[in-house]
Specification:
Pfam families: DUF302. The structure is a single chain. This protein is of the alpha+beta class. It has one domain: TT1751-like domain (TATA-Binding Protein, 2-Layer Sandwich). Helices cover 44% and strands 26% of the residues. The protein is built from five helices and five strands.
Length: 129
Amino acid sequence: MFDYTVETTKTVDEAIQALEQTLSNHKFGVLWKLDIPTKLMEKGIALEQDFRVLEVCNPDVAKKVLTRNQKGGYFLPCKIVVYQSEETLKTHIGLLRPTTLMEMTEDEQLKTLAEDAEQSMIQAIDEAK
């Protein structure tokens, strides 16, 4: 599976706030937040669903990836999404698994780095939910 996704009873804003704290506890920072409905509305397109994308990074891991294989940088930073499901109306927090992406490099050392980063982000997501 390319993702890890959990459901929470928190609002999207509450989930993001909790996630920022738990990510920080795991040495990840939020570099950028994209509010997709707001961005689309700037282009005149309405999206009723609340959907946010967070780009997150652990600087130590990023340095190790780039030092090992610069093409690993194609997959940096990591993405976490927070959105309200149209079906359940509950908030979901999801991660695009770094291991899935780094497998494409066919570099075993990058795969190991991705496994460690992925486990930390999964723990942060679980703690935030």
